[in-house]
Amino acid sequence: MASAFAQRNDTGGRSSGGRMAARVAGAGATGAVLTYLSLAVVNAADRYDSQTCAQASGFCMTVWPVASVPVSLAIAFMMLVLIYRLLGIHPWVSVVPPTILFTPLPVLAAERLAASWLAVVVGAVMASALVLTLWRPFRALGQSTTAVVFFASLAVLIL
Fold it and tell me: Which pTM does this prediction carry?
């Protein structure tokens, strides 16, 4: 049960001190950068598709818009694993998959609601809130922040 990679994250917030704040801030910055890069990849693919298919008379679609979403998710997954390992955020298995699964809907809702700057902020908030769930004193705050942002984004997308 006890392995060399296990880290106990349920200790009090005071024990990690400034390191925890640096980890949460680093996760937020990583979330913001990855959100911006993912949006740039998807938008570039859409522009390429529009320019390529502008002269077509019938149905026209290139592979790039279809491939851009899985490619950006794969890049985000690898970068989250790498950056979280460098930041000392463990276990990353409990943070990275929810970040990859839950963040695209709020980002999409924020981009529809305002602009890509709001989507970048939402990506940072989601990444920071999900990292907060690793530490017991802040678990409820992280989970409730994630839930509020996620359900608010569903309301924006549905209504």
Answer: 0.84
